[in-house]
Amino acid sequence: MSSRPRAAEPAEVAFDQVEVRRSPRRRSTVSAYREDGRTVVLIPARMTRADERYWVEAMLARLTAQEARGRPTDADLMARARELSNRYLEGRAVPVSVRWANNQANRWGSCTPIDATIRLSTKLRGMPRYVVDYVLLHELAHLIVPDHSAAFWKLLEPYPRTERARGYLDGVSSASGLDLSEDADLVES
To answer: Regarding the domain with residue range 74-176, which homologous superfamily does it belong to in the CATH classification?
Structure first.
């Protein structure tokens, strides 16, 4: 099987934490993922050892590159929340917890001021940073003013991309058929 891409050869990698799983159902695709501290590479059962070695190296390089680009973790969100609070809210919003949540079907983010927790929808992953920053800043502002009064919106005025981010989110909502603009937390009341 010689369906290798003609790109540059992948770098040498250690194989001590790699599990190769051969599948008779796989005909030509190769995939990989991380599981319990090791990398699992799925390959066709008929693949040669040379091709196996090539694809293991290629998939390790691909996973490493994806992780380097990475999606922000909960810890990254907390750090970013502190930065945004300091920059735009004079450090007045101090969340106890900031995390990604996959149960935010009808909103981009939510905040519980009583326990200072913030949750951002996993739908925001992959969106431009200014959009994620806006949603995070919006929820941080709720730690100071829990409603959408004029005082709340005044807190968001210093963020220069508020309108652009709101327009982006409205566009995503409309394009995906989601009704997040009327009932969601991000709409001015």
So the answer is: Metalloproteases ("zincins"), catalytic domain (3.30.2010.10)
